[in-house]
Amino acid sequence: MRLIRGFWTKAMRQGGLMLACLVLASCSSLLKAPEVDVASIELAGFNLSEQRFALVLDLRNPNPVELSLRRLDFSVELDGRPFAQGHSVQPVRVPANGTAQLDVQAVSRLTTLLERLRAARSDGRARLFYRIFGSAELDGVGTLPFDRQGSVPSWCANCDPARGRSGSSKGDKPL
Fold first, then answer.
1. Is the pTM for the entire model greater than 0.70?
2. How do the domains of the chain map onto residue ranges?
3. CB–CB of 54/44 below 8 Å?
4. Interval 90-124: pLDDT, tens
5. Which has the closest alpha carbon to 148: 84, 57, 86?
6. Distance (Å, rounded) from C-alpha 31 to C-alpha 29?
């Protein structure tokens, strides 16, 4: 009898442990990826072939639990074309249903930026449309993909930001 009771106790303990692991694993699959938006972008340096950017990303956690972001790898497209790739340089915690900012670095070819700016200027657009996508590596959860779109100023000197188009009249030549 003692042998049977010991067997059942051990089986229940192992079964409970397996159940706890399954519950934790299923909870992690219910987590949503953080929402990532570009808050600011600055030129950090350049040479003849590439430029380096310092970006500040706004992270929004849509989950009821804190996210501990270990690493963020991302790519940026401007107007639907590949622009830059980068990664986070430090971990960050994003509070439950809260926000945080993350400093990241990105590298791009100089010709890519010039092509995008030239296209925006010739179209008279005051804004460039971006897409930022990649993966967020979270402590204890694994990796979650993210994908967001938005727009940033095109630095077009002859554009009307309110309309997103050129502010010049018909006879004016673009700068």
1. no
2. 1-30, 33-166
3. yes
4. 999 999 999 999 999 999 987 787 787 788 778 88
5. 57
6. 6
